[in-house]
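Key result, reporting period 2: structure in, sequence out.
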């Protein structure tokens, strides 16, 4: 459930669902002219844009980085939460979605930023002084 292929596949699903949620919010904003519902749909647009961004970051994490198993779990939980957010979108409401979207984006972005910083650091080289080197002066006697 938290392998690289599975999390990558679900991140693609999350991208598609986030795009669909964004599209539904934009259409709802254009079709329903009531001021209070327009505000709710604008919040939906913001939420789904953030969730789409988080889904893309999750996909990049699975595609471009070699994560440890526990990091696939971390990314996987957040990707699955984006898919769950799409389902809850119809039942819970849009204002709650904005908070969830910001939390999911910040955690995935933090995970990606950690890997970016880790990969951009210069490799560590160790120098060994001659006093630290020990030699074994054993010779084979072939007599």
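The corresponding designed sequence is given below.
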């Amino acid at each position: 459930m938290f392998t690289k292929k599975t999390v990558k596949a679900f991140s693609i699903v999350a991208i598609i669902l986030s795009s669909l949620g964004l599209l539904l919010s934009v259409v709802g904003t254009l079709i329903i002219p009531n001021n209070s519902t327009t505000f709710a749909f604008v919040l939906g647009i913001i939420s789904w844009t953030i969730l789409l961004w988080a889904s893309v970051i999750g996909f990049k994490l699975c595609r471009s980085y070699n994560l440890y198993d526990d990091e696939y779990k971390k990314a996987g939980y957040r990707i699955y939460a984006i898919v769950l957010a799409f389902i809850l979108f119809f039942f819970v409401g849009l204002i709650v979605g904005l908070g969830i979207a910001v939390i999911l984006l910040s955690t995935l972005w933090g995970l990606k930023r950690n890997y970016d910083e880790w990969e951009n650091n210069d490799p560590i080289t160790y120098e060994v002084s001659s006093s630290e080197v020990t030699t074994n002066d054993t010779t084979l006697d072939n007599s």
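The CA atoms of residues 9 and 59 lie 8 Å apart. The radius of gyration is 25 Å. This case is discussed further under Risks and Mitigation.
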